[in-house]
Amino acid sequence: MPLPASYPRFRGKKRALLVGISYAATKYELRGTVNDVNCMSFLLRERFGFPADSILVLTQEDGDTYRVPTRANLLLAMRWLVEGCSSGDSLVLHFSGHGLQKLDTNGDEVDGYDEALCPVDFEQAGVILDDEINETIVRPLGPGVKLHAIVDTCHSGTILDLSYLCRLSRTGYWQWENHSRRPELAKGTSGGLAISISGCSDSQNSSDTTALAGATSTGAMTYSFIKAVESEPGTTYGRLLSAMRATIRDNGGDLGIPGPLGAFFRRVITFSCAQEPQLCASEPFDIYRKPFLL
């Protein structure tokens, strides 16, 4: 299927897909996901120089039928994100919504479960498995292309099926854990670099989070990410991940994001210390030497 004409046609070196799903009028309803997307858009434009016309936003409140985050539209938008990418491109996927686990059927998961994103119509059309996400946005990445996925859901630790998961202790000790149970399936990139920063480990689910005043602790991940980036420009991946975890453990700390973005957050956030952000990558690197750049 061709990409919708309403999707951005700008083909600069920076491109982003931002998805916020509220599941309005269902028992799964979330509040704050659209706000997460707005805050992430602001961060990308003001801090990292992403042009506004290179950012595609999908929410179910959008009047454009192709920008409602159905399963079909999400897969189309993921195709848009990576289509025509070339060396020097920086791509970002941000997803705020529900995630779940399903039994692994092809033996490529260490824990026996696939992770999945829930589109707004997941009960009718189905979820999007990590295998499908990997095939759509990871494998097409050519040399010199960089993708960051910032995924604010339950069960999101290895949501891109990347080969390496970073184990980081509270004392700062770290090591990469190889999750390529079946290397012959070739789930790596085509020479580029893919990195995911996710809200919690694969085993953590919605019972590990809480809701208060219409906010969910999945939104705490987006908040902790933005706070870490804004508080320490030019940080490394290791310091970023440590700062995010500390914010969640400290129940948000002083709940203060410096600069103009601070005024952009206007909701109560509930944190769960059981929720621990994770870092995965298509190749290992020194997390305390590599600067975090989008």
Give descriptors for this structure.
294 residues; Rossmann fold; eight-stranded mixed sheet; three-stranded antiparallel sheet; 6 helices; 23% helix
How is the topology of this model organized?
Elements: E1 14-20, H1 33-48, E2 55-59, H2 71-82, E3 90-96, E4 99-103, E5 113-117, H3 122-125, E6 128-129, H4 130-138, E7 146-152, E8 164-168, E9 174-178, E10 193-198, E11 211-212, E12 215-216, H5 218-231, H6 237-249, E13 278-281
Parallel strand pairs: 1-2, 1-3, 3-7, 7-10
Antiparallel strand pairs: 4-5, 5-6, 8-9, 8-13, 10-13, 11-12
Helix pairs in contact: 1-5, 5-6
Structural write-up:
Helix content is 23%, strand content 21%. The protein is of the alpha/beta class. The chain has a single domain (14-281), classed as Rossmann fold, CATH 3.40.50. The strands form three sheets. The chain has an eight-stranded mixed beta sheet with strand order 2-1-3-7-10-13-8-9, sandwiched between helices. Strands 4-5-6 form a three-stranded antiparallel beta sheet. The chain has a two-stranded antiparallel sheet with strand order 11-12. Helix 1 runs parallel beside helix 5 and helix 5 crosses helix 6 (237-249). It is globular. Mean pLDDT is 84; it is low at 204-218.
